[in-house]
């Protein structure tokens, strides 16, 4: 039997997982504007002495307590995962000690505790106690009780919040996880952030795909066509078909299309055909930030042997921290390479001749206003004979992370008649 045709636009985790889920029932073609599938578009060789060692930008770390669907997808695809050390060291921007912790692994269990005895300062112990209490107490919060609060309002009203821990540690971590300003974190619906913080993120340690994004992409692109270097300019639909126009001038016709780009890119594609719906995409705010991979060790505090892999430099007068991961410490494959760092939001100058790659990212930011626009987008897909579908990490509920990307593609696949394969 001839399968109906379906186009997926965008090859981040949402588009790739949507195409992979839909390929058995539909004849799928995936379009990506980059020359490589988007999830693996930014990778850099950090090896030395002629040895090639590729790392992903960003690293894409995951935790088992939060990433339920992603873990199942990886298992189904046969993607191996391994622990990565993402323990944090927090400093003020002038180099003052704030807090250090280390991840200790015991078989399949991992727990975080204070770093070496050399770092048992009073401030460190106080922040450690506050962290233990915070992550213990947050699990008792009933999400229904906080569903009308922003995260900022929650912090003000929650009696367990320790001001110094919130300002110097929690907000810098959340700002890095959500890659946005502190003010944007405070505008997030409280339930989204509380749900994330209560999932065991502090006790479980973190994981990543052992062989990086290249391995995931190789496994998840089987069974359908991938057209890279293909940017979609316009999408129009009738009740019988959907027409795609590429910026190259080529056009294609499909039975269905799944738009799996970020909202700021989805809106313009449908602006001419569906102006009202396009408006909802335009209203979803996004934050821009820079990630630099480099060999400038002066950006990392010394002596670096004692310091946990992820180093936060926190200036309370700024809206974001600078966060630097020492890749040699956090990733087994990079252990023996020359010192190499990944810095998010550099606030000091990184020596230009030591920069290996620099990428600017955009990322949706959640707020109650955004949630209203998302509802409208979701309702547009409920209409009878709908042919234009949307997925992406902004539509999966929760923080726009890989997990939400997979949740959103599962949702679309289920609506298009696919039973979840796990
Ligand atoms: C610095 C940083 C660090 C992060 N770290 C983590 C992490 O450790 N763990 C984690 O879970 N998440 C992390 N995230 C979030 C995660 O990367 C995103 O949630 C995820 O990439 C979103 O996937 P997506 O498929 O929704 O969108 P995207 O990955 O943005 O994919 C959309 C794709 O659509 C393509 N596209 C856009 N317009 C067009 C067009 N007109 N035609 C064709 N193609 C188009 C784009 O090129 C892109 O490839 C991080 C994000 C950033 C910015």
Automatic annotation (TrEMBL):
SUPFAM superfamilies: FAD/NAD(P)-binding domain
A Pfam family the protein falls into: NAD_binding_8
Superkingdom of source: Bacteria
Molecular functions (GO terms): oxidoreductase activity
InterPro entries documented for this protein: FAD/NAD-bd_sf, Zeta_carotene_desat/Oxidored
Coiled coil: none
PANTHER family on file: AMINE OXIDASE DOMAIN-CONTAINING PROTEIN, PROTOPORPHYRINOGEN OXIDASE
Name by which UniProt lists this protein: FAD dependent oxidoreductase
Organism: Oleispira antarctica RB-8
